[in-house]
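Work Package 4 report. The design task specified in the project plan requires that, given a folded chain encoded as structure tokens, an amino acid be chosen for each position. We show below one input record used in the internal validation round.
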């Protein structure tokens, strides 16, 4: 049997990792400025993380949500403290797509409404409802198509106010920083307007923090830069540093009812141990602030480089528009300078390094970036 051929793979197989570095099967070292697509938050194989998971696995790795699991309570308390949302409640699942599915179902249950307002350029996952609200026909199978979703442009306050005034929506869902769409940042004005009009119309405001959350922007959640509070917050990726965990935080104004949401594997003992370890390290090592500081240094280091047409993002979620195709630029970075980076469209380089990078890694990246730009005649 062969693998189902749906991925375009780089000719590189990492077999070992530590901190911000990877090693391939030939022993070549790479600086990881991609973080496994924003998943690696505290760095690869952090000793506290490895220790917590190993210890938990030696006790009990899984039992169903039909029994008490005090690790879930511990995780909820830690996330409430780290995020500033201590009065919210936590529901655990397995992925960002599943988190968004549950967020939307919860909004619909609560309001009794069936329509969703989403953003052009949005990406919310690959499960059925998440695909239906993602603005990408290429991933929408016929079964995913629905007339219950409308789209507006990110940061179009007038369109937002017009749509919500004219129709009964269960929810507005916004990525405060759109990742797939080129690191497009929702303005403070737009998020504040969304909060205001949602309050007026009884609409739930959902912030999709799957990629931009968990400290990556330099705040625990990227929407917190605008000073607003969402009704439901979805998260995944960095929450457990590679172990599959998703979650939603739910406002105290939304009542829980037995059986309205559920999951088999979500919130298992092993998943919680992984997420607790990450929360411990994020707090102890000041990684949220480090993301802000290191992100500013990266931007400052590449600002003014010829051929850099725009730099967007916050913290360690950075999009760099290039005058040459990003695939060509990334290839030089990877093959000559051994640095892994991401992409977002034909000309946008996407940086999503672990939140624990230091001046040393930033300097290595900036030097390689400048050298690559010069070599490519940008």
């Amino acid at each position: 049997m062969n693998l189902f051929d749906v991925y375009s793979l780089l000719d590189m197989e990492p077999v070992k990792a530590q901190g911000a570095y990877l090693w391939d099967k030939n022993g070549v070292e790479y600086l990881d400025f991609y973080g496994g697509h924003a998943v690696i938050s505290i760095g690869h194989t952090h000793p506290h993380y490895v220790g917590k998971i190993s210890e938990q696995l030696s006790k009990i790795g899984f039992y169903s949500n039909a029994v008490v699991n005090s690790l879930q309570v511990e995780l909820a308390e830690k996330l409430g403290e780290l995020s500033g949302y201590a009065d919210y409640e936590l529901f655990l699942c397995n992925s960002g797509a599943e988190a968004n599915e549950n967020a939307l179902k919860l909004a619909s249950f609560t309001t009794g409404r069936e329509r969703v307002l989403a953003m052009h350029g949005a990406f919310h996952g690959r499960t059925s409802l998440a695909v239906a609200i993602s603005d990408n026909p290429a991933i929408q199978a016929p079964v995913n198509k629905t007339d219950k979703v409308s789209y507006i442009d990110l940061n179009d306050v007038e369109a937002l106010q017009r749509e919500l005034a004219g129709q009964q929506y269960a929810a507005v869902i916004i990525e405060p920083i759109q990742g797939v769409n080129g690191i497009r940042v929702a303005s403070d004005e737009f998020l504040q307007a969304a909060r205001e009009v949602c309050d007026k119309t009884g609409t739930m405001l959902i912030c999709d923090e799957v990629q931009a959350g968990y400290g990556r922007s330099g705040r625990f959640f990227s929407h917190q830069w605008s000073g607003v509070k969402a009704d439901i917050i979805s998260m995944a990726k960095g929450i457990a540093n590679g172990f599959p965990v998703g979650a939603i935080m739910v406002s105290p104004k939304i009542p829980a009812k037995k059986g309205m949401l559920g999951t088999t594997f979500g919130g298992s003992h092993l998943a919680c141990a992984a997420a607790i370890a990450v929360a411990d390290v994020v707090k102890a090592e000041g990684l949220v602030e480090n993301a802000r500081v290191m992100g500013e240094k990266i931007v400052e280091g590449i600002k003014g480089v010829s051929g850099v047409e725009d730099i967007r993002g916050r913290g360690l979620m950075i999009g760099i528009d290039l005058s040459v195709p990003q695939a060509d630029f990334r290839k030089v970075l990877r093959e000559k300078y051994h640095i892994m980076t991401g992409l977002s469209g034909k000309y946008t380089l996407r940086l999503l390094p672990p939140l624990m990078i230091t001046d040393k890694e930033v300097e290595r990246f900036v030097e390689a970036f400048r050298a690559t730009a010069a070599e490519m005649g940008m």
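The first strand starts at residue 14 and ends at 18. Validation will be extended to a larger panel in the next phase.
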